[in-house]
């Protein structure tokens, strides 16, 4: 069992961390083996655990430079942005029971519609109409049907907390780290309005002009690793959110045409939904991603303005 699967109260987890105790070795006294603070206090490690801890202690002071010997070319200080990212990633992996489902989506119609109207949108609204804007719109509609994906888990009260808004976080890659600005009330905005906000927020992130308020309040996050050419990925949840959607690059692939009864050329994009399996069943994850995929395959349902 991993540490993320262990049932333990927040106070007990903090105490175990302070005492450097592996919580997977503690026998909980609560329902279904849940660990309480008293269980941590009364825990007595076995001889095997003692040997393991001793081994860790003896090796914990080994530095990277001592292991590399004379191979060190330079040292680079970790900036506060990277430290924050590292802390968030570690926190997510430690607290989430991950499950990932991948869908292949035929975005041929979406490709054609965007190609047909993007110049007009640019001329009329001065907005670059991105594929990501359509995905955000599709996700907002799917979240209305599957609100659990926009919820958060409250560790203190042990409750699933549902938001009263649909705020979509967009992962933005910059030269100075990864930032996740938020499109507030995205469900009330058109594809064009979403596209304009994506461009504006991404520019602010790259120019180091993002305000704290612009990175707060996300209820669901989308990461577009397709922008750097990746087809598939395993996105990391922005904890305490309980779901995230990853987008792959759009590529040429063959699809079977039921009407023509043969393989035809098309545009494919792979979606990966990662979710916290403690609170969302695999079947629900599949239905949510299928709904997003269906909306992208029928882009007329999304509108533009």
TrEMBL record:
Keywords recorded for this protein, A-Z: Acyltransferase, Lipoyl, Transferase
Entry cofactors: (R)-lipoate
GO cellular component, one term: cytoplasm
Keyword Transmembrane: no
Top-level taxon of origin: Bacteria
Pfam families xrefs: 2-oxoacid_dh, E3_binding
The keyword Transferase is annotated on this UniProt entry: yes
Domain named Peripheral subunit-binding (PSBD): residues: 7-44
InterPro entries per the UniProt record, alphabetical: 2-oxoacid_DH_actylTfrase, 2-oxoacid_DH_E2_comp, CAT-like_dom_sf, E3-bd_dom_sf, PSBD
One GO MF term: lipoic acid binding
Family designation: Belongs to the 2-oxoacid dehydrogenase family.
Record protein name field: Dihydrolipoamide acetyltransferase
């Amino acid at each position: 069992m991993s540490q993320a699967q262990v049932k333990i109260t927040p106070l007990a987890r903090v105490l175990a961390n302070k005492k450097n105790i592996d919580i997977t070795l503690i026998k909980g006294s609560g329902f279904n083996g849940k660990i309480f603070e008293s269980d941590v206090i009364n825990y007595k490690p076995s001889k095997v655990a003692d040997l393991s801890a001793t081994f860790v202690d003896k090796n914990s002071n080994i530095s990277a430079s001592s292991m590399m010997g004379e191979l060190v070319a330079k040292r680079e200080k970790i900036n506060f942005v990277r430290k924050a990212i590292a802390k968030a990633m570690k926190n997510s992996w430690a607290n989430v029971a991950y499950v990932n489902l991948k869908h292949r989506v035929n975005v041929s119609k979406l490709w054609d519609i965007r190609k047909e109207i993007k110049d007009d949108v640019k001329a009329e609204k001065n907005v670059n109409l991105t594929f990501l804007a359509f995905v955000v719109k599709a996700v907002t509609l799917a979240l209305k049907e599957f609100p659990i994906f926009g919820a958060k888990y409250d560790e203190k009260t042990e409750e699933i907390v549902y938001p009263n808004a649909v705020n979509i976080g967009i992962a933005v890659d910059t030269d100075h780290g990864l930032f996740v600005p938020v499109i507030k009330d995205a469900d009330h905005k058109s594809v064009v309005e979403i596209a304009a906000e994506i461009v504006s927020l991404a520019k602010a992130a790259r120019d180091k002009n993002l305000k704290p308020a612009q990175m707060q309040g996300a209820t669901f996050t989308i990461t577009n690793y397709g922008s750097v050419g990746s087809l598939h990925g395993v996105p990391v949840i922005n904890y305490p959110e309980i779901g995230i959607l990853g987008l792959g690059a759009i590529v040429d692939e063959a699809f079977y045409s039921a009407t023509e009864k043969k393989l035809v050329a098309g545009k494919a994009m792979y979606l990966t939904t990662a979710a916290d399996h403690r609170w969302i069943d695999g079947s629900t994850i599949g239905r949510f991603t299928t709904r997003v995929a269906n909306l992208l395959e029928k882009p007329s349902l999304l509108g533009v303005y």
